[in-house]
Structures are given as C-alpha cells and as structure tokens.
Design the sequence.
C-alpha cells in the first residue's frame, strides 16, 4: 500500500535529497584552490587582467615589484600601464613581442607620466630592452648612467618620452639593434657625470667595443634635444647604416667640447639622411660646426645626405657641414643664419 505523501512529507523528502546530493558533490565544488606558484604567482603580483583565451592582456602597475614582474613575465601583445608616480630601480626585459603584437609599456595617464628613476647617475640604467618589437611611450627617465638602452632589440618604438638627469647618454641603440624608432620626445641634461660621453642619442658602438656594431635603419624624428646635452646631440657611429634624422630641434646650450663634442650631429656611418632639422648655437663658442663627418674605419663615413636643415650659428665661422678626410656627403637646400661658411671637405651640392 502506497503511503500518501502529504505536503509536509514532500518537503522533508526534498530536503533529504538535497542534503544527500550536497554531500556527494561537496568535495568537487568546495575543495581548496591550489596556491599559485611560479609564473602564475608572478602574474598575480603584476596585476595582470586575464582575458578570454587568445586575447591580449593589460597589466596595471603602481609599484616597483609589479613592474619588475610585468617585464619579466611579459607576453606578446601585453600592455603594461604605469600609474602616476616614481618607480625607482633598474628595469629590463628580454622578452620578444611580435610585429602584430608588440609589448607596450606606457603611462596610464599621458598627462601625468610615470617616472622611471635609476639609483644613481653614476651607474646602471633606467630601462634596458633586449627583446624585439617593443613600444615604450609616454614615460620619463632620470637618475641613471644611461637612460634607455636597446641591446639586440629590433623593431622597437620609443615615443613621447622625456630623458634627463642622466650621467652619460640619454638613449642608446646598441648591439645589433636595427629598425628602431625614437620619436616626439625630449632629451636634456645628459652627461651630468661625464660630459664627453653625454650624447643625447647614441647609434651603434665605437670601434673596439664588444658589442655588435651593425645597427641599421634607425629613425630619430621629432625629437627636441638640449639644453645641457654635453656631448653631440646625436652620434652616429661607424659600421651603422641608414640612420634617418628628421624634424628635430637642437639647442646647443651646454655642449661641452669635451672628447671632441663640438657639433649637433657627428656622422661616422654610411647612408645617413639628415633632413629638415633646426639647430641653435645660442652663443656656445665650443660649437665649431653644425654637422660633422669623421672616418674611423676605412669605407665608412660616406654617402650621407643633408637637406632642408636650418642652423642658427650666430656670427661664428662654423660650417654647416664639415666633412673630414675620407668622408663624403651630399647637400641640398640647407640654410645658415646668418650667412657664412657652408661646406668644408668632400661635400657635393645638388
């Protein structure tokens, strides 16, 4: 005989079934999550926002440890956003981005840029990248021997940065780094420790250095350099090729004359194009020429082109282009204010 199920019995049966089911499934549903370790822990510390599989990641940082972890564990397409503030230390990454998905490090608020500060203008660097396909933008760099170094870093873009208070050179394209771009930036007050090595931008390496000197197709455009850049504003070294410098402004106040630093640009490589730039001597008597060419290695310092540049050289006898022995250049539509010496050495006008 079937027992009649009253509403009260139905309720008790439902509660009992639920309790039995809960007991059966409790281990799977409520087991303690394993502690994160290794890369997962680093990602958590870096504040990485995981998105759907295959999509790009945003990493938001407001601390030094977060930034260090984000650089260490970067993936192609990562966007590292720095909150306003000062990040003191030495920062680097060896991770590669890709052409389609570069790795980006930038300020969260371009109007209130984050500052990467080294520990001393006498040593170290602010940021060194040894991977390919990076974007470094809207950041400030100070208080290190070198500001930004690219070592064997190809196809990297530096944009909208300010570099200052640096012991040696501001930005260095080095050790086989090719197709790098520096644009729309401001470099000043470099060489605070060693004036003869205080270049604003350094392309390549000097002969005899242990680095790969083949640094090709570098682009420097729309950059303000000076005041108080104590060596050349741009030094283009031997065994480099295809450097383009355009639409830059050079403020010669502070060029020191030390270690032969007496011009805005010194070209020792081949196939450089220097065009549509403006230079101001500002009464600095150590500036003997606007642009110089030197041959350090036979066969280098040739086939360089200067066009559309305007240089304000006061009443000095400085030349617009001084091509020393063994070098050669072409020149077109350059303007000297006031009128005076234009070209010296093997310079062909067209």
Sequence:
């Amino acid at each position: 005989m079937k027992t009649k199920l009253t509403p009260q019995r139905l309720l008790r049966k439902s509660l009992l079934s639920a309790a039995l089911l809960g007991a059966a499934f409790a281990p799977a549903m409520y087991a303690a999550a394993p502690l994160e370790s290794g890369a997962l822990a680093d990602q958590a510390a870096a504040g990485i926002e995981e998105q759907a599989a295959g999509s790009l990641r945003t990493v938001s940082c407001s601390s030094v440890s977060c930034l260090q972890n984000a650089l260490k564990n970067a993936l192609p397409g990562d966007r590292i956003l720095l909150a306003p503030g000062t990040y003191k230390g030495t920062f680097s990454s060896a991770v590669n981005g890709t052409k389609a998905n570069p790795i980006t490090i930038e300020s969260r608020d371009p109007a209130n840029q984050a500052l990467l500060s080294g520990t001393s203008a006498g040593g170290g660097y602010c940021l060194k990248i040894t991977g390919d396909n990076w974007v470094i933008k809207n950041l400030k760099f100070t208080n290190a021997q070198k500001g930004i170094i690219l070592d064997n870093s190809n196809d990297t873009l530096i944009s909208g940065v300010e570099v200052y208070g640096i012991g040696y050179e501001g930005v260095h394209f080095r050790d086989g780094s090719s197709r790098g771009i520096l644009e729309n930036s401001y470099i000043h007050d470099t060489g605070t420790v060693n004036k003869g090595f205080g270049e604003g931008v350094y392309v390549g390496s000097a002969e005899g250095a242990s680095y790969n000197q083949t640094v090709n197709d570098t682009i420097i455009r729309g950059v303000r350099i000076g005041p108080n850049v104590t060596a050349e504003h741009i030094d283009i070294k031997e065994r480099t090729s295809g450097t383009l410098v355009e639409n830059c402004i050079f403020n010669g106040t502070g060029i020191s004359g030390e270690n032969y630093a007496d011009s805005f640009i010194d070209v020792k490589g081949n196939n450089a194009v220097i065009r549509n730039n403006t230079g101001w001597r500002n009464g600095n008597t150590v500036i003997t020429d606007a642009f110089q060419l030197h041959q350090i290695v036979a066969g280098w310092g040739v086939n360089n082109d200067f066009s559309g540049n305007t240089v304000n050289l006061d009443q000095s006898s400085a030349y617009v282009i001084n091509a020393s022995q063994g070098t050669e250049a072409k020149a077109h539509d350059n303007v000297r204010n006031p009128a005076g010496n234009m070209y010296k050495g093997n310079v062909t006008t067209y």
